[in-house]
Write a structure and sequence with these properties.
With 227 residues, this protein is of the alpha/beta class. It is 53% helix and 12% strand. It comes from Micromonospora halophytica.
Length: 227
């Protein structure tokens, strides 16, 4: 690798279906700036695989026979200096997806996602730019609205509102934009600030709210009922 050239994104594929692993390896293996460094067939194998292969991104299936991807994601993201996690799922697993995102997963892919979109998602997550597509965001917002409005006070909503009340007006604007699934470039255009300034605000939000990534900020905004 020449001076100034970026190292490829290192990816670990975790799925109990050998055909899925092979398909993902084929898709990602043909991309010069992405390298598949290893595979695992169950969540139980993830800690050892992460230690052995040092991936930047883990593509994590949800349904696996021994240790499911949600449990594996929670354990992985709780460890020191964890890799990013991109969850593989289907639309009938909304509640599970929310659990994974709350645990710190950078986003999720549907298993029928076109190859080019898979590559873009891996790059975004590796760069800390994990964002949900508008269609996926709408579906998650609907789910959060359904599960987050029980009779009586909602502790999750109260906690979210309390945390967001501690933000400055500008920080709150950026948080709301993240809740709407906006990218840094879109936030820059909407709020008339540079992309570098947007990134600084996102970093400040993560520190202030004690969150792992921008998707968790979006979920907090959804919990508060602000989008």
């Amino acid at each position: 690798m020449s001076a100034g050239e970026q190292a490829p994104v290192r990816v670990l594929i975790v799925d109990d279906d050998a055909l899925v692993r092979a398909g993902l390896s084929m898709i990602l293996g043909g991309v010069p700036d992405v390298r598949v460094v290893g595979e695992a067939a169950d969540g139980a194998e993830v800690p050892a695989a992460v230690e052995a292969y040092a991936p930047d991104v883990v593509l994590m299936d949800i349904r696996m026979p021994r240790v499911d991807g949600l449990t594996a994601t929670e354990a992985l993201r709780a460890a020191a200096d964890p890799p990013e996690v991109l969850v593989l799922t289907t639309f009938d697993a909304d509640e599970q997806v929310l659990r994974a995102l709350r645990a710190g997963a950078g986003g999720f892919l549907l298993k029928d996602t076109p190859p080019a979109e898979i590559v873009r998602a891996v790059r975004r997550v590796a760069a800390g730019e994990a964002t949900l597509s508008p269609a996926v965001t709408r579906k998650l917002i609907t789910h959060v609205t359904v599960v987050g409005t029980p009779s009586g006070p909602d502790p999750r909503r109260q906690r979210a509102l309390r945390l967001l009340d501690g933000l400055t007006a500008r920080e709150r604007e950026v948080a709301l934009a993240l809740g709407q699934g906006r990218t840094n470039a879109e936030i820059s255009a909407e709020l008339f600030m540079s992309v570098a300034t947007v990134k600084a605000y996102v970093s400040r939000l993560l520190t202030k709210l004690a969150l792992n990534n921008r998707v968790q900020v979006a979920l907090l905004v959804h919990d508060a009922g602000l989008v």
